[in-house]
Amino acid sequence: MKGLLGKKVLPVFALVAVTVFAAVFACTTSSEPENFDVREHLSTATRYEHGIVSTKQLSNESVEPPPSCLPIHINLVARHGTRAPTKKRIKQINGFAERIREWGNSSLLAPRWMKDWKSPWDGRIVGGEVLPKGEEEMFELGQRLRTRYPEVFKEPYHPDLYMISATQVPRSAASAVAFGMGLFAGEGTLGPGYHRAFSVISDSRTHDTHLRFYESCRAYQESKANAMPVVAAIQEDFHIHIASSLKERYLFNVTKEDIPTLWFLCKQEAAALDIVDRSCSLFTKEDVEMLEWADDVEVHKLKGYGESINYRMGIPLLTNVLNSMERVIAASKDGHPWNAMEKGHLRFAHAETVIPFTCLLGLFLDEGDLQKILMEAPLEPPPPPPKPRLWRGSAVAPYGANSMVVLHKCSSLDKTGSDTEDDDFRVQIFHNEVPVALPGCNGTHFCPFKVFKEQVILPHLKYSYDSLCSLQKSEEKHDEL
Questions:
Q1: pLDDT digits (tens, 9 = 90+) for 254-312
Q2: What does pTM read for this prediction?
Q3: Per DSSP, which regions of 80-139 are E strands?
Q4: Architecture of the domain delimited by 7-26+34-84+128-468
Q5: Where is the signal peptide (predicted)?
Q6: So where are the chain's domains?
């Protein structure tokens, strides 16, 4: 299957896709298992609470630091919370309402709600903002982090101790504010919640190479443009089969062009509104799993391990994380007081930021894949259901997704139990608050910082951002996820 998504082997992939669908649809039924929740299968449109479920299915270990280790610094890279569809997408959904009503009035087998269906966003002319549910996700994440790491967050807030940054896209900045309100709740004098003011720093929207590196990386834009038709052709095969399945079940005239919009509507209703008994109910379990997989293939090919440029362009962010840890280690060795050291750098951005960062850390890799990415080889796409796979958009980058690098200072004891002269610094990684072992550190959870730097970070830093990307601004704009 090597080179599976390359243009030359597309006919082979199409044949495989047809074979997969033949097997899947042969056993399709109209009744769904009671424990199947479509909200856990929306790829990157999955809400955070359901994304944690997917993450724990991959790694649910309970790992505590050694007794001699104390967390001293946190790097957080997070996606914004659950958001509304963008203005462009709202217009698309509103325009689709007539199509749904047409189906509802053309077939006796169509669900009754379709006959007079109206878009939940009808009349809305703006969108893309973080929803109240997304604000709650970020607020509660901040509270949980403070509870989990009281040693790190015990100092009074100061911008030099707790750096909070976000992109200039409003939903990311709002997520940073909601997170900070949860993190520092009760620490100030403002209002009945005793909130306190804190700063959120953003780079220029057009020159943010730390959190929006994908926007100004010309090489990535060209790679993505070349890959999109290949992915679209793959997905089209599935849309044809699912359209045929829907037409057979409900006897209305659904086409392959209708499926992407109908699936997008399902994802938005389920994630943003908790509505699962309308557009989502039109799809069977098998439909949903295949549509989810098709989305996951797209994310893999355009944002993940499918091409090395997808994640290597994130080296400014990786360098920034490394530098923050090295500053803390140097300050510790120089004897600086703990209450004067940087405690955390907390960043809020997009799926296009979080996904490359997880790839740079080597997360969600099958055995043997680590050496491939160190050699800059593209990885094969995740296998289709019912085969198990590590790469799931619902775990890699749901709304509110976050990767966290926690630096520990560990006292090295000699045989008498006394401190030795050297202190040992170790790194632990969390994804969506779930501890994950690092393949680049021999599968350990507490990786010595020197090993983490040499085996995980430095192999990616043999290039500079400038050498990877032409900094000529791309004319094409993309909506961040």
A1: 999 999 999 999 999 999 999 999 999 999 999 999 999 999 999 999 999 999 999 99
A2: 0.90
A3: none
A4: 3-Layer(aba) Sandwich (3.40)
A5: 1-26
A6: 7-26+34-84+128-468
